[in-house]
Specification:
9 helices; globular
């Protein structure tokens, strides 16, 4: 049971991963639109808000950027035959924890406190240090879950495992992270 939680990609059919991933991507786009969040990179948001179609386009861009980067890394470094649809489907499903982490912004108090931080009002925001600590721990745990799933998705789709696989994944993720804000400017 624990193996299915840590690495569902070993047991998850590509079609099912795609379907669940698309449902969550659409729901996340609607959530970002309703709450006023704007994705600015693979893991960062701000409160600029977007129209629904722009929020959806940003989600698609982030998914495609990382999927394409991981696919290229797999093609370059793996001896196995790599299929883009496997990498893309598993990466789409692996995004679910990151999308779940956005739910902390469903709480108006959390949005207000993070708005204070973004405005530079750290003194006022520090009055909510307990809330910030709890949200920080929750988001950190979910982020660890996201990275574990994203690596496992990459590993299963490309057959790159172990230290070499981790290094290639980390290098590719960092490149895609720094590339994503530039590509999001078009949305």
């Amino acid at each position: 049971m624990m193996n299915k939680i840590v690495n569902p990609f070993r047991y998850l059919p590509v079609r099912q991963a795609t379907c669940w991933g698309l449902v969550v991507l659409i729901l996340t786009s609607i959530f970002c639109w309703q709450v006023g969040l704007r994705m600015t990179s693979l893991t960062q948001v701000n409160f600029a808000g977007d129209e629904l179609w722009v929020a959806f386009a940003r989600q698609l861009i982030l998914w495609i950027v990382l999927s394409f980067g991981l696919y290229l890394a797999g093609v370059m470094f793996s001896k196995s035959k790599i299929r883009f649809q496997d990498v893309a489907a598993f990466n789409l499903f692996a995004r679910i924890p990151m999308d779940i982490s956005l739910l902390v912004f469903a709480f108006p108090t959390v949005r207000s406190v993070f708005g204070l931080i973004m405005d530079g009002s750290m003194q006022t925001a520090m009055q909510y240090v307990n809330l910030l600590s709890i949200v920080g721990l929750v988001v950190m745990g979910i982020s660890i879950w996201y990275f574990i799933w994203t690596y496992n998705a990459f590993s299963e789709a490309t057959n790159l495992k172990g230290g070499r696989g981790v290094a290639i994944f980390a290098m590719t993720w960092v490149i895609c992270y720094f590339l994503s804000p530039f590509l999001l400017m078009w949305a």
